[in-house]
Records
---
Amino acid sequence: MIDHVSIGVRDLATSPRFYETVLATIGLTMLVERIGTVGFGKTYPEFWLNARPNGPVTTDNSGTHVCLRARGREAVEKFHAAALAAGATDDGAPRI
């Protein structure tokens, strides 16, 4: 099974604030903060942000999809609402 997921972000100075807000809705908190990387999880870092200031811009059709476990529909709705409130855009409402 997968132990953790890492994604590249262009701005590691501001990105963790967004992820702190949305990941808190499903019980993840920032557990590790190092130069160039930040890790979120429940008991150990499962979701990492890695600084990639010159990384490529991904397109909507990149095929990348990360699904995080939530306790139920209500948690998914809270996650979605928090992400939109924090400035994210979506490609549709949460669905099964």
Note: The longest strand covers residues 45-51.
---
Amino acid sequence: MNGKNNTKRSRRGSGAITLRDVAKLAGVAPITASRAVNTPDQVSPEVLKKVLDAVHRTGYVPNRIAGGLASSRSRLIAAVVPSTVMSVFMETIESLNGTLFDAGYQLMLGQSGYSVAREELLLEAVIGRRPDGIFLTGILPPGKSRTRLLASGIPVVETWDLTPTPIDMLVGFSHSDIGRDVANFLMAKGRRRLALVRADDERAGRRATAFADAVVLGGQRDVFVVNVGDSRSLRSGREAMVRILVEVPDVDAIFCSSDLLALGVMTETKAQGVAVPERIAIVGFGDVPFLADMVPALSTVRINGADIGKQSARFLIERAEGRPVNPCVIDVGFSIVERDTT
């Protein structure tokens, strides 16, 4: 029985080309083929060319999990984010991925859909795969997932929020400060009857509470709040605006917990012939890319998502490679971007 038939039978059994197959085709020992693939500077140019030619001809892909077990490094970073659809997190994800890729790391992405239960399941699966680091959107509260992360010893960076008790590292900003500053911004423009349209998540809730408190502190009536629940759609924003115009006809400013909800509010004001900003001012949150080109252009809260992604990647790379991180908490701040709607 010839060697060719042996190779075929091996592939039927495993379903994959192995490094041994590559070594046989290149005419070198398996250990030499391994060095050529994993540490090419340890073999001669002639041997390296033979092995790489064999890799190209066979389509062989190195088993990075096995290599990670040997070195205790996976070169894999896991990220858990609420959503990527029309998301304020896209700039962060792109920056995180690009910085990691340039350093030789790969990003594994999971979406929680703003569900605590789903986030717990994702984190359980992630921890079991032992990545070199974990990126989280938001602060993980006390509970099973936080306990498991602390016990795992895996470097963790929490983002898009601030807390005095991070799990490990933190890159974010204060949602309470945003709510307060937006309220003061609108009142400084003479707005006196304020409303708020928010989704039902914890960070939006903190912005809403700070916004309402600042309005009352400024001597104005209580803020009228519409909670759209789990929906973050343009339709939800339109429906919220219908309710506001019926129940608070003298409203003159609205703060929305996302730009998409704000776009829904704007759409309904246009449909009902309500002038913006003359009659009602509107502020969103997130500054998604196309807002500046709309008519009217939406005023919003800008978060430097690219900085969050880049700094988070640097934190995780430093820790994965055994170097200390100091300081391990960074406040990137925010800005209110004033456009046509205010």
Note: Residues 138 and 202 are 9 Å apart (CA to CA).
